[in-house]
Amino acid sequence: MASASERSYTRRDTVMFSVCLALSLVALFSPSAWGLGLAASLRQTVLAPLVWLQVQAEEGRTSRERLRAITVERDSAAYLAQGLPSLLAENERLRQVLGLSKRLSSPYVAAEVLHQAQATDGRTLLLSAGSRQGVAAFDPVIAPDGLIGVVLNTAARTSIVMTWAHPEFRVSAFTVNGNAAGVVAPSSTGEGALEFRGVPYRDSVPVGTLVLSSGLGGVYPKGIPVGTVTGVVKEQAGWERVYRLQPSANPGSAAHVLILVAPSGDVSRAFPSDSALNAQRLDSLERVRRADSVAQAAQAAKAERAESLAARRDTARARTRAAARPDSVKARPDSAARRAAGDSAR
Amino acid sequence: MIPARANRVQLAVVLLLLVVLHFYVRPRLWGPRVAPDFLFIALMLFAMRNGPGASAIAGFAVGLAADSLSPAKFGAGALAHTVVGYLASWARAVFFADNPLINAGFVAVGLWLRDLLVLAASGSGDNSFLTELAVYSPLQAITTGLFALLILVVFREWFSIRLDT
Q: ipTM of the predicted structure?
């Protein structure tokens, strides 16, 4: 039989557990604005040092210093990184972000993604920029590949982003050729996919068509790539079709993002087509090749000069030898005489 | 120093180390979905050495922190960590021996249960729910269990875990 102290101890444990459980349930079923407000205030106070620590780690991991160096000396850094595949991949990602930020005409804030351990990490992301950097709720978040999501809530130095994987995510969209419009939402049938819903039945969209944000609704500016059509999910005859989209950007692997702080107008120029990007890449490759050929020409000229100098030196030596030859001819009889004298002595 | 206080100080040092590992080292390890959850290891170590009530409060605090940093559904993490913290302390006192391997397995199972509760409470879609529970959660449970084992082996002298609570 349990003693009185043991019973009270167990009762106390049960009470503490019940209180915590009740508080959790209150948090779970309270309006989401309360929860987000409480989360923001916790991030600004108790969790601020821990978030700061993670920001430092994230900065170390993604090599912020290297980003700055690349900004100043991109070409030389690229040469240094050529031999290391991981550095090369990171360099490519940073170049994409850098390229995107250059192409963007509307103001933006660059931020790092601080991934968390929770299973729901892909649906909401914690970013290292907040209201102090000018970030506000409902600011669109983009990556070089396309749309990531929208800012849900901000604290002073951090913000929470609802990604396209979140069940409540919606964006008004249209096809790149403009012949079909609808609403993009996360797929209800499979993870990691989107659905292009509400497309009129008469508007058929071929596989491979790029879908962009339409700018309707006032949250996302026009022209951000959302996904590429991979097939039809379902169709209601005579009414509408729902298409499956392969998302353009992956929030799970995003390390750096840009937050559009005052989105307006059309940003499609910031996301050029693949052919335009290829042209840019080829152009930069051509520039590198040209620089290489100049360097090779300089090397060849140097080698040629060294060869001609060597040839001149050889001719000078040959002349000197030719001038010295009569003496050597004179010396030969002496040596023959010496050899003959030796023989006779033996 | 009194032994009980020394134990508390040792536990606090290990917990602090785990918090630093979680926020400073974890971002540098692999993918975020499979990297070990050091905060969860800290919670389980705390639960193994404290009563169910205190463990429930610790779980609630850890869950609140997790919810604040990733509020897909605020309160889901707090609920899951509270339940897991309470159950871990209770089950540890009733069932488990002081074997590091068993304790590491205990941590791994606890993490999977935590993920199950978080996903259930935050109302995930069918397929993502199954993918998380069948693929990512077990992977994270394995890495977390291995790191828990490492911590228990390294601090074996400090973690001469008592069965009485």
A: 0.80
